Amino acid sequence: MTDTSGQPVCRRLVGRTAVVTGAGSGIGLAAVRRLAAEGAHVVCGDVDASSGKAAADEAGGLFVQVDVTDPEQVEALFRTAFETYGSVDVAFNNAGISPPDDDSILDTGLEAWKRVQEVNLTSVFLCCKAAIPYMRRQGKGSIINTASFVARMGAATSQISYTASKGGVLAMSRELGVQFAREGIRVNALCPGPVNTPLLRELFAKDPERAARRLVHIPVGRFAEPEEIAAAVAFLASDDSSFVNATDFLVDGGIAGAYVTPL
Ligand SMILES: NC(=O)c1ccc[n+]([C@@H]2O[C@H](COP(=O)([O-])OP(=O)(O)OC[C@H]3O[C@@H](n4cnc5c(N)ncnc54)[C@H](O)[C@@H]3O)[C@@H](O)[C@H]2O)c1
């Protein structure tokens, strides 16, 4: 496998075990490929059995079907990783949803609010709770929780529960990173900017004005590719980031730093 500039990827994760949730699609799938290419045993968790299994097969890893909102299934995911490969070195807690009924606060019902909180925030609580005991025993581990740049910035095009859930992921990751730092466990919140995924492409193909409204805020003038986010995941997973902890790790093309962008 090559990196985004065509160079062979480095092998920073040989012998490590990485658990990835939301492994079947988008950022999770790109991360599965990258982590495997860097030498990790990858355990692919997804609620969707066909895409999750395909990801695992491609990476020579293991598929575990999991609904990340279910405590027992999440425990089984990390237990299976440990029992199969003997360690849990990396947890990329990434599964998340962004459903259309999560919108402006004026239009979003309580059920829609709760569902997004469960899948995006409670899931990260459950995954960290399950992963940390293994990492404490090893005296080492890297947890990467997928938040979003919207945890840092406000949008007039609101998805209120999504944004609040990602703010929660960010605050929880920071706290865990501080609490477990002296036990060799690092916890970071990964904050991607908008990523060029099939869902986003479809949405913006239908509505170019909507795409333009967002692109104008991105200094680099385009959305991220999933592989660019996966490269950051591999860095945070590896010992190259040994002093990076409790951060909101932005991979956003400069959005959060921008006032006026180039024409
Ligand atoms: N795509 C973006 O622009 C973007 C930007 C910032 C943050 N994020 C975040 O990145 C993460 C991944 O997003 P993506 O764009 O790759 O999404 P995606 O929809 O392509 O993939 C999400 C995966 O999660 C799985 N999943 C959904 N609910 C689940 C559940 N209850 N249990 C287990 N698996 C479940 C899906 O089956 C799917 O394979 C999410 O947390 C998302 O909020 C995405």
UniProtKB/TrEMBL annotation:
Q: What is the E.C. number?
A: 1.1.1.100
Keywords assigned by UniProt, alphabetized: Oxidoreductase
InterPro entries xref list: NAD(P)-bd_dom_sf, SDR_fam
The EC class name is oxidoreductase
Q: Does the keyword Chloroplast apply?
A: no
**GO molecular function annotation:** 3-oxoacyl-[acyl-carrier-protein] reductase (NADPH) activity
Alphabetical list of PANTHER family matching this protein: 3-OXOACYL-[ACYL-CARRIER-PROTEIN] REDUCTASE FABG (PTHR42760:SF115), SHORT-CHAIN DEHYDROGENASES/REDUCTASES FAMILY MEMBER (PTHR42760)
Name the family: Belongs to the short-chain dehydrogenases/reductases (SDR) family.
Q: Which NCBIfam families has this protein been placed in? A: PRK06057.1, PRK07231.1
Q: From the Swiss-Prot or TrEMBL record, give the protein name.
A: 3-oxoacyl-ACP reductase
Originating organism: Streptomyces fragilis
